[in-house]
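User: Predict the full complex structure for these chains.
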Amino acid sequence: MREDFQGVFRNAVSGLGLAPDAAVVAFPIDLFMADSDVSSVGARKREFYEGLTTWRAPDAASTAKGARLVSVSGVTYHDALVKANHLFITNLWGDGLPLWPASPEAVDWILQGSDLARDHVLGRFPPRGGGVTVETCAIALAMAGGRPEYLPVLLATVEAMLAPEARSDLLQAASGSAFPVVIVNGPLAKRIRLNSGFGCFGPDPQRPAGASIGRALRLLQQNAGGAQPGIGSMGIYGAMRYTNAVFAEDEEGLPAGWLPHATERHGYAPGTDSVSLAFASGVTNVKRRGGAEVSAEEDVVHGLHRVADFMRTPNLHCIQFNGYETGTPGVVVMSRVTASEIAAQGFTQSSLRHFLWEYSRIPHETLSRSGNLEWIRVNSNALTRDSATLDPWPICSNPENIVTVVAGGAHPTNSYWLQGYCPKVVGRKIAVPAAVDHLLSQADKDLGCASDVCLI
Amino acid sequence: MFELSFYDPSGTPLDTQPHAPRLDTLQGKKIGFVSIDEWQAYRTFPLLRDLLRRDFANIELLPMDAFPRGIGPVATEEAAALVAASEVDAVIIGNAA
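Assistant: Here is the predicted structure of the two-chain assembly.
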């Protein structure tokens, strides 16, 4: 394997429940490039042989249960806080920005957000396989400045991340800089101050839940999952990873007859608190509003063509890991104003996706000159390979694979396209704790009331 | 002095299982190969196979297509079951980059 890939590899091995190492022979990246000199394989053949015969595994990790406590001391509280943040950096526990130390007091407070026992095991966080309990999630949320009422959303998201079909083990390690996109449905979202309007991808001090939840998720990805840049994650660029993308669908803005995303995608009844997890590798703002004096119909059709034009990109990530058949090529986000205009022209959610699917098809000439057809032809999924004969080539096997969500500020000028890198969109219901009303009442006292009449 | 105590966020250690024991020798052994078919595997694996044949008497090398190939198919329970059922003494997996 490549020398710089060993962190990723050790994570994968650990994630399988093995001691975090295995017999490898590592080479510089040069060997793995086209027309390279591979003679060093022969020069180092003994290492291959020894890997099968004399290599010894490291000692197994401690099986102590529960998170361990660490301590720092300072002349003042501020001094101690600074030292704690220095430790986060040196131990690779942080993201470079200031963090709150997850004190027992803070974690106990956050744990009020779940009726599950603190040592309830959710699973192993891929790819490294660090054990994740409710307590582990509360620790991450405390570090990210979260509140107890955010914990149910984080727990549901982690459940979705740990689902095998999400393939987060692969996506965390891959070079394509995939990041989680978490779409929250149901009435809880607004109550906990999760944004569905202007600036819904953050930051927003009036609706801070998404930032803390997304950042806590990233901390779990790094600290429990081992997805450290250049060590456990080969994401070449990163991006969107400080807080990932955590937002609520603007359900109040859905046109008449349109269903919430979670109802369409996962079959949850309207009004169910849920998360829907997809992975994306990029974000693009699409200016969709018409410029000249156009009719309402022209404005809508022109705008949809502009979105389709952005989608008509040979994004080969979306065909990996069966994504062409079972995943999504991406998430189209539109404001309630835009959705209303689209619906007024007779579009349903399904016919909208069909339009986008039809007009985002890519001609073979475009795919061929960039070598993309070859990637499609050698794909491990049969349906994907068969699609190579279609000209123009549809970006996914089924229009319904395209995720469409209503969110963002109530303004028609722009829509948003999150390019997908997603084998499967995974949904999970949120378990709301019995004490939720008390928690939200406390939040109103701490942060001011969450009702619309109180917001600027 | 001010002391701050806080939790290690690395997750809870869970029990691990041991790696497969190593072989005493490669002489006379049965070796399988699992390839993701990327990163010049089509050149490195044949080279490695030649080296093994030359250096070890009576070594049995399974064909490259004895197990699923490609980055998706290799990472499945089906592939693991095939490897287990083949009763190989060892497996070489590659190329990871």
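The CA atoms of residues 27 and 56 of chain B lie 5 Å apart.
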